[in-house]
Amino acid sequence: MSSAVLPKHVAAVIRYQKDPLRALEMFSSVKTEDGYKHNLLTYKCMVEKLGFFGEFEAMENIVAETRENLDNTLLEGVYISAMRNYGKRRKVQEAVDVFERMDFYGCEPTLFSYNVIMNILVENGHFNQAHKVYMRLKDKGIAPDVYTYTIRIKSFCRTGRPHAALRLLYNMPAQGCEFNSVAYCTVIGGFYDGDYKMEAYELFHKMLELDIVPDVTTFNKLIHVLCKKGDIEESFCKKGFLDHASKMFESVTSEGLSPDVVTYNTLICGLCKKSKVIEAENYMNKMVNSGIRPDAFTYNTIVNGYCKVNMVQKADKVLLDAVFRGFVPDEFTYCSLIYGLCEDGEIERAVSLFNEAGEKGIKTSVILYNTLIKGFCRQGLIFEALQLMNEMQEKGCSPDIWTYNLIINSMCKLGCLVDATTLMNDAMTKGFLPDIFTFNTLIDGYCKQLKIGEALQIVDTMWEHEITPDIITYNIILDGLCKSSNLDNVFDTFKAMREKGCVPNVITYNMLIESSCKARKFSRAMEFLDEIQQNGICPDIVTFGTLINGFCENGDVDEAYGLTGDIDSGFRFLIENVTKGFVPSFTTFGRVLNCLCVKNRLSEAVEIVYLMVQKGFVPEVVNTIFESDKREIAAPKIVVEDLLKKSHITYYAYELLYDAVRDKKLKKKTRRKIISGS
């Protein structure tokens, strides 16, 4: 190099060079040139380049060299670059160390440095430390600016205190800081994260009323919060987060904001995840009409969305249009279409598309193979799935654990347990350990064939490979033992399960209660019912239904209630639990009514019929009777007729009940009981 090289030229080369170590080599070699000396610009560029690529040791050496060669009071920009690079890699302690060294080496941190380190701490969840830095800033007499307050607002929102964030937002003008869209959108996002949907929506519109329109980047972050919130909400549609995202989109566009491809893609992705693919396509069309070109993510998201809702023809149409606009289908596109075609049962088209992908130069990866193998397995085409697995190995594409899981699970569902076990052993020999779902599927297959010994061998294999059986595993084994009438082993397995730390659930207890009832061990069954409630597990319809059916099949209605402390009438067991919210099946009602009628206890039987009417356990036809007095007279008769029609009660019980519900004296007495009981 000639002596004409200037620092600005070196800085430009550093920025242009993609390899940080080559940039460092050039940076070091240029120092030997006569008359050349690095300045603040070149040092800062070198620190940024090394830190961006994670070359932190080299970066620290340059920072140290900078301190030796330049006035330390001027180096704040260098320190800030180092802090930001550490922050991007979540190296929080290293960023804090840089901040603390500034003062030590004579570079007094300004508000800019405080804001940077506070933001790094908040972004990484160190909220208390961020607060301490803020208090230190105040102690030094440095006045916070709008960025400081926005970072504080973000900290409040991240710690679940959106109302505190809102108070700080409203207090900003009094501190000489104007509202901005970032602060507003941060608080709005905080309210949504805390499920304060209405407060968030009102604040958003208040922001627009104040003529504060977020820029595209800020708005994209808010839309992302809403779409992400929708992903983790079970009752997404009821919560309305996606609707709010759509409405916000319309509001800001009407205020003059021009969304970019990221805005549209975020919203389109959220809509497709909730199966609102037609609406997503409408947004894509708006996108095109506004002059924004959809990218591969846009097209793939909509194609995948249509395939998942079994609208492959719509996916084809979108793809044709996309290809016309220059989109080149990739592996994800083909996977989506193959999946959709397989779900529709169009296996031949799926295979044809799979072959087309290879012909067009798309590498047939394990993901593409697994998609087609999954389609074969869904259609019960195990032989074809195995052939494809062999083909992929011949072509140098090794099957992964998902390949084996798919085929093993499908074999189990078709009852090919020996073949499934052989394939599982083959997978383990090759170093692929099936997941617990596959083991459970295989165990379930053996248990359904009452091959309990083989099922227990699979459990032993799980322990050998350090896979701990879960509650599903044990429930499958218990169910198999129950069906094979092996009651002693049922209780032994239950005991062993708890000793190994596996907590039983309501399904476990239901099986134990059913086994006890079948063995006429009703005291044991009631003990399990007590244990359920003591463990804080809520009994369900199966729990009570099993108990009631067990007692009725034994012809002993009184026994159920007798075990709970009163032998006056067994049917009270049913009535008390219905009052507590238990919703029995009509089969359960029928069995109790049959048993009561055999014992000629019509008063209790009629009370149950009226209870069914009161609680709404009635055929739909009852709800079509609009006049309440007529409905009151007709409903019990309709219930009794419906129970007979569906074979829930015997004809003998029907005759007794039909006459009994028409008996005015008995009816009056029963109504008084129901009213006093409720």
TrEMBL record:
Ranges: PPR repeats: 75-109, 110-144, 145-179, 180-214, 260-294, 295-329, 330-364, 365-399, 400-434, 435-469, 470-504, 505-539, 540-570, 585-619
Pfam families given in the database record: PPR, PPR_1, PPR_2
InterPro entries recorded: PPR_rpt, TPR-like_helical_dom_sf
Signal peptide range in chain numbering: none
The keyword Repeat belongs to this UniProt entry's keyword annotation: yes
Keyword tags: Repeat
Organism domain of life: Eukaryota
UniProt cross-references to PANTHER family, sorted A to Z: PENTATRICOPEPTIDE REPEAT-CONTAINING PROTEIN 4, MITOCHONDRIAL-RELATED, RESPIRATORY COMPLEX I CHAPERONE (CIA84), PUTATIVE (AFU_ORTHOLOGUE AFUA_2G06020)-RELATED
Family: Belongs to the PPR family. P subfamily.
Name of the protein in question: Pentacotripeptide-repeat region of PRORP domain-containing protein
